[in-house]
């Protein structure tokens, strides 16, 4: 949904009017097979792929140095986003949702998992900001929640009560300052207050026990299900 955020070479975009026709074609093909057409909205942040973004700069909550992959190929560094770029990226998610609605999609999934930009903001490891977008867990959640608000505002402008909005997240990170179950509980509590239709929990192992921030004798999914409780208007979705 932003040209500098592409995480795969050749992936379709949803950030320009010129893409509306191809998005419409994609939505029609999916719905023509009897399925719901859900467009996933994501920004790679520091995980954007050099080949996909060309000469554009990689951006992230905080500076990320250049790295070397397992193949020995260097990847370019990412720089910390300015406050203006943060606001612009939030607006870009809203525009992507607007394009999805106009193209005939049945809904969108906001991708806040797998180390992409929204997760980077939640993470104390990747988000080392000292402004209103970093520091406390409340501040680190500010960006993804603002994205949710921008997407739901697009839905409201079109009067599409039937338009599906989901949110995907990864519950923990391995880094010492990374996301813990305590952070994830705060995220879930905040998302429960939003008009979402589902949560998508992205896990490699369904039955993995908690790393830290909660009862380590219990599984992440058990605790997530318990935290969601019986007052969730949508549905949790679990995926490896």
Defining traits:
240 residues; alpha/beta; two-stranded parallel sheet; 8 helices; 9 strands; 15% strand; globular
Provide an overview of this structure.
It is a single chain. The strands form 3 sheets. A 5-stranded parallel β-sheet has the order 1-6-7-8-9. Strands 2-5 form a two-stranded parallel sheet. Strands 3-4 form a two-stranded antiparallel ribbon. The protein is built from 8 helices and 9 strands. The mean pLDDT is 93. The chain has 240 residues and is α/β, with parallel strands linked by helices. The relative contact order is 0.12.
Layout of secondary structure:
Elements: H1 20-32, E1 38-41, H2 50-53, E2 58-60, E3 67-68, E4 74-75, E5 78-80, H3 83-103, E6 107-112, H4 117-122, H5 137-140, H6 142-157, E7 164-169, H7 181-191, E8 198-202, H8 220-228, E9 235-239
Parallel strand pairs: 1-6, 2-5, 6-7, 7-8, 8-9
Antiparallel strand pairs: 3-4
Task: Give a nutshell description of this structure.
The protein is α/β, with parallel strands linked by helices. It has helices at 20-32, 50-53, 83-103, 117-122, 137-140, 142-157, 181-191, 220-228, and strands at residues 38-41, 58-60, 67-68, 74-75, 78-80, 107-112, 164-169, 198-202, 235-239.
Strand content range: 15-25%
Query: C-alpha Rg, in Å?
Result: 18 Å
Mean pLDDT: 93
Q: Could you tell me the number of beta strands?
A: 9
Structural class designation: alpha/beta
């Amino acid at each position: 949904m932003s040209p500098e955020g592409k995480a795969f070479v050749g992936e379709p975009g949803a950030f320009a009017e010129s893409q509306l026709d191809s998005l419409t074609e994609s939505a029609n093909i999916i719905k023509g097979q009897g399925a719901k057409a859900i467009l996933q909205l994501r920004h790679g942040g520091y995980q954007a792929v050099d080949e996909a973004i060309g000469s554009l700069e990689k951006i992230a909550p905080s500076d990320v140095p250049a790295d070397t992959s397992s193949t020995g190929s260097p990847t370019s560094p990412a720089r910390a986003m300015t406050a203006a770029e943060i606001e612009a990226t939030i607006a870009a998610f809203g525009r992507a949702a607007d394009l999805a609605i106009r193209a005939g999609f049945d809904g969108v999934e906001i991708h806040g998992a797998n180390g992409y930009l929204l997760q980077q903001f939640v993470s104390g490891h990747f988000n080392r900001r000292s402004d209103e977008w970093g520091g406390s867990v409340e501040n680190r959640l500010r960006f993804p929640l603002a994205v949710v608000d921008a997407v739901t505002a697009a839905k409201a402008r079109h009067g599409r009560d039937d338009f599906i909005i989901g949110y995907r997240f990864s519950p923990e990170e391995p880094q010492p300052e990374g996301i813990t179950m305590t952070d994830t509980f705060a995220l879930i509590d905040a998302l429960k207050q939003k008009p979402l239709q589902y949560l998508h929990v992205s896990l490699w192992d369904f039955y993995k026990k908690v790393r830290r921030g909660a009862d380590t004798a219990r599984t992440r999914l058990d605790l997530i299900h318990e935290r969601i409780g019986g007052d969730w208007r949508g549905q949790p979705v679990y995926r490896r």
